[in-house]
Amino acid sequence: MDRDKSMPAAGNYMRLQFPSRSENESLARVAVAAFAAQLDPTLEQLTELKTAVSEAVTNAIIHGYEDGEGEVRISCSLHEGAIEIVVEDDGRGIEDIDLARQPMYTSRPDLERSGMGLTIMESFVDELAIDSAPGRGTRVRMRKHIAPVMAQ
Amino acid sequence: MDRDKSMPAAGNYMRLQFPSRSENESLARVAVAAFAAQLDPTLEQLTELKTAVSEAVTNAIIHGYEDGEGEVRISCSLHEGAIEIVVEDDGRGIEDIDLARQPMYTSRPDLERSGMGLTIMESFVDELAIDSAPGRGTRVRMRKHIAPVMAQ
Amino acid sequence: MAIESSVLDGVLVVRMRGDLDHHAVERIRDEIERELRATGYRALVLSFRDIDFMDSSGLGLILGRYRSVTQHGGRLALCEVGEPLRRLFELSGILKIVSVYESEEAAIRAVKEA
Amino acid sequence: MAIESSVLDGVLVVRMRGDLDHHAVERIRDEIERELRATGYRALVLSFRDIDFMDSSGLGLILGRYRSVTQHGGRLALCEVGEPLRRLFELSGILKIVSVYESEEAAIRAVKEA
Ligand SMILES: Nc1ncnc2c1ncn2[C@@H]1O[C@H](COP(=O)(O)OP(=O)(O)O)[C@@H](O)[C@H]1O
Ligand SMILES: Nc1ncnc2c1ncn2[C@@H]1O[C@H](COP(=O)(O)OP(=O)(O)O)[C@@H](O)[C@H]1O
Asked: Cβ(A47) to ligand 1 under 6 A?
């Protein structure tokens, strides 16, 4: 049973959790990239994925948990040549998602944030959906098409 | 609050779960290596860690789940310059752990296993503890000292 | 992440190496500011030659240094921005306020000529 | 993981590249066996020059090929085993039954001279 030939990685997933510490940002990127490697992405696609994940994880750490300690959860799954990545936190949540999505908007100019994180995520993946409950947390779902669909 | 200077990564952890598919073996190695990087290991230490993780994950896939589908769980934590790695499966378990630990013993010569996995793990980490319940699963705990202990 | 800085004819040249993410930025921001203070915020060149990865935290670092340098009447230039980072720079609109040069020498010349 | 093989004077030379783990081994075992069959199992050289990582699954691959080659009266040699893999080879005791050579040429010569 060699899954590689017929349907590479179909149905495969991974879940990763770690505390909201900035030193885990690179772990998040590297793990998602290693998982996505199963779809044989181009270097450019890999850079886009790593950047989008880095933005979402950084947001969870800085904005979600406001540099306090909480848990960041990532889950990835593969579907017909696309990767879906969900980044979740149980932090303060987003009051106004439309405002948050505006280019250059940041609630933390004091931390020298550029306000470009969500804009970059939007442009580097195919779909970006944000769910947030103020006081309870945020869930960012991204989907990016990588490989041509394989015959099953 | 720069954790890097005073106590690098103390108390940090990560948890990773994925289905028992051989294509996830490299993900497991890469994620543990990225996490362990916080202790600034030598290349040799990193190779030893990756090898030990690869053995434990391969065992969960081949022996635990016997190439069927189940979930492999890894958790890593850092303690005073040491990394602790736990690899768990809910597979068939090990009847005789002493026998399993003997160099060259393998229950699957038909798969061209060398029977050296547990021996290699033992020699590449400082502590290796195996808990197993036949019919319920196996839990392998490894501990390896990496960095000098930091003053807190 | 590591930085290597030198002062050439009064121009502070900072070469950054590794992953320029939020974790790295938090650690090197103060270091660059300290050296800017020592050199009177006259001119800063940031080299991206050895940057393997960058996200919007790097944009924040650039914009923050742009602010502190220009507030003191100084100048900022960037150099050796590789292909993978180009799109980030273009997306962000940062190129409208800071110039990017092919080489470190060209960037140094540009900030000195001002 | 990829392999590249060639036949030199009847000796099958297989260069493996990447991570030699359980996943890789499952995929390349049959490929090597197929080529051994085509060359009559006379002589096999496995080159580890481009192997970045190897675990005990790689040892199993070597032992398995040792068995199939010697059963047919053929010979096996390994070559270009880098420092990181050395300890694995030593630990396993595999060096007692298979020889390791510095270069591919030396390994080819050794299996031909037999
Ligand atoms: N996980 C999150 N939890 C709480 N607020 C968030 C989260 N992610 C984004 N936000 C809000 O959305 C704003 C815009 O985010 P973004 O575009 O990434 O820019 P930046 O991180 O530079 O502020 C943030 O300033 C913050 O107010
Ligand atoms: N996670 C596990 N679940 C069930 N059995 C295991 C597990 N890990 C190891 N074993 C048993 O221990 C034996 C020795 O393991 P190991 O030394 O790694 O050699 P190998 O994997 O080459 O068989 C295996 O053959 C198997 O019977």
From this structure: no
| pTM to 2 decimal places | 0.93
3-state DSSP percent of chain B in helix, strand and coil, to 5: 40, 25, 35
Query: pLDDT at position A1, please?
Result: 34
3-state secondary structure B25-44: HHHHHHHHHHHHHHHCCCHH
Tokens, residue A70: 């909480």
Class of domain D2-113: alpha beta
Helix runs in chain A, H state only: 3-6, 25-36, 43-59, 97-100, 117-124
Task: Please write the tens of the pLDDT for every residue from B105-124.
Answer: 999 999 999 999 999 999 99
Q: State how far the Cα of A120 lies from the Cα of D8, in Å rounded to an integer.
A: 53
- Of A63, A65, A108, the one to substitute when testing ligand 1's pocket (max ligand atoms within 8 A of C-beta) is A63
CA atoms within 13 A on the CB side of A22: 19
Per residue in A17-56, pLDDT (tens digit) is: 999 999 999 999 999 999 999 999 999 999 999 999 999 9
Interchain CB contact of A63 with C (< 8 Å): no
Q: What is the largest CA-CA distance in chain D?
A: 34
In this predicted structure, the answer to whether residue C53 has a pLDDT above a threshold of 70 is: yes
SS3 at position C42 = coil
Query: Is there an atom of ligand 1 within 6 Å of A114 CB?
Result: yes
Q: Where are the domains of chain C?
A: 2-113
When pLDDT is cut at 50, 70 and 90, the band that residue B149 belongs to is: low
Does B24 qualify as catalytic in the annotation?
no
Separation of alpha carbons B114 and C42, rounded Å: 65
Give dist(CA A151, CA B10) in Å, integer: 48
Instruction: Report strand pairing: B137-145 vs C2-8.
Output: unpaired
* CB pair distance less than 8 Å for B4 and A23: yes
Which contiguous run of DSSP H or E holds residue D14? strand D11-20
- Mutating to test ligand 2, I would choose from B22, B53, B58, B59 the residue with most ligand atoms within 8 A of its C-beta, which is B59
Q: Residue A22: which of B2, D78, C66, B128 has the closest Cα?
A: B2
Q: Does C60 touch chain A (CB under 8 A)?
A: yes
Q: What is the pLDDT of residue A151?
A: 46
Residue C69 CB contacts under 8 Å (≥ 6 apart), including other chains: C36, C41, C43, C44, C75, C76
Strands of B80-149, DSSP E: 82-89, 127-133, 137-145
Give the integer Cα–Cα distance in Å for A71 and B14.
10
* Ligand that lies nearest to the alpha carbon of residue C64, given by its number in the listed order: 1
CB contact under 8 A, D29 and B112: yes
**Cα A51 to middle of ligand 1, angstroms:** 15
Burial of B42 (0-12, 13-18, 19+ CB in 10 A): exposed
Nearest alpha-carbon partner for A100 in A76, A78, A116, A81: A116
Interface predicted TM-score of the whole assembly (ipTM), two decimals: 0.93
Structural domains for chain B: 13-145 (3.30.565.10)
